[in-house]
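name: query_chain
kind: protein
chains: 1
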Amino acid sequence: MGALTNAFNKMVGRVKQMIQTRDQLLLDVSHELRSPITRMKVALALLPEDENRAGMTADLNEMEAMITEMLELERLRDGRGIKVERQDLAMILRDVARSLDQKAPGIRLASVPNHLLLEVDGEKMRVVLRNLLENAIKYSLPDSSVIDVSVIQSDNWAVIRIRDDGPGVPQADLANLFEPFFRVDRSRSRKTGGYGLGLSICKRIMEAHGGRIEVENNSDRGVSFILTLPDNNPGNISSHLAG
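structure:
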């Protein structure tokens, strides 16, 4: 048993080192790519405007956005890169939902309190909520019902659930959904958008707050993303719910 325990501990250590090495490599590559991309953008600006220049500019902008997201991932590691203060997360949620409500199939705040005061980085939480709601809209089907958002208080935690009525996620892919560059659509088509970094950033933001993000397929159709945040004052959720 002692030998087995030692072997297991060594295996865990090697896995952690592999993950850290991978993350450091991605970070180093991201930093190194910034300079040549800047030089290419300057060179492109000197070329005559035509279809080729427009296409290359779009590609460079896409690469730059991806690098920015990679560096943001690193900034959020171990709780860095966030500034928390007491804010009304219910108000932030309503603002984000309102900005997207005109897009089909629409968003319904099924049971959201009037106020939810938590220690959070408001801008970072806007990133998480917008990312999840935009994904729910993007992957909705022509006959999808409205996206449901609800908030509950459980012990010392506040739980936000975003439930869509889209195609869902293959069960085998659920465990990898928050990994950097992972996408359910293996084609990497621009039409399906993103670089597979949005959900990774959401996870890193939630962890930086001492919370977590989870995903599960609904029993009928679609998926639900569950955001759990620590609530140090569990009585702060208003008993009056805003629809």
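note: The chain has a mean pLDDT of 83.
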